[in-house]
Amino acid sequence: AVVHPGDIDGLAVYVLGDALARARGSLDRFVRRAGELGLCLCIENMFPRLGPYVEPDDFEPIFKDFPELKFVLDTGHAHIGDTTGRRITDFIERFGHRPCHLHVSDNLGLSDDHLPVGRGTVPFNAVARAMASSGYNGSITLEIFDDDRNAVVESRRALEVLFD
Q1: How far apart are CA 16 and CA 123, in angstroms?
Q2: How many Cα atoms occupy the beta-carbon half-sphere of 150 within 13 Å?
Q3: Any bridge partners for residue 99, and if so which?
């Protein structure tokens, strides 16, 4: 099961400590319940507008406190607002032993466009190299929001070439 770590926006930014504590409390309940049910629980990286779980550093304390928690890397989310160009590969290098799934889409770095692979600026060559180095051999969901069904096929073919 995949969870978002919490959308903290609006007035919550003025009581960030309280909002983070509530998000952390919810995560604690989710992790415990998933354990009771025998489910693998995964947390997904977010993007700046839904702050604060955006950077790899944001996840260090979560994974320390919840060692059973796995990670879903969303390539589109990781690329939004990335001024260094390294956020995606930093996630893979730091948490490559934790991923249980990939959410793959492309964008231009400004919003969660869910473009087909190769139509934006996500550095998919670097992502593929980093994932191969981490030994990842799990599942991928193409999160392509396009009226043209061929866009999903195009993305799948692009990933087959990248991950071959």
Answers
A1: 32
A2: 0
A3: 71
Cα distance between residue 159 and residue 116, in whole Å: 10
- Nearest Cα neighbor of 144 from 136, 134, 156 is 156
Contact 79, 114 (CB under 8 A): no
Cis peptide upstream of residue 52 (ω within 30 degrees of 0): yes
Reported residue count of the chain is 164
Structure tokens at 118: 């190769």
Residue tagged 């993007």 (tokens): 47
**Whole-number Å distance between alpha carbons of 79 and 122:** 6
CB atoms within 10 A of CB 52: 16
Query: Are 69 and 62 within 8 A, CB to CB?
Result: yes
Cβ–Cβ < 8 Å for 101, 2: yes
| Closest C-alpha to 85, from 40, 44, 130 | 130
pLDDT, one tens digit per residue, over 46-85 is 888 766 789 999 999 999 999 999 999 999 999 999 988 8
What's the pLDDT score for residue 13? 65
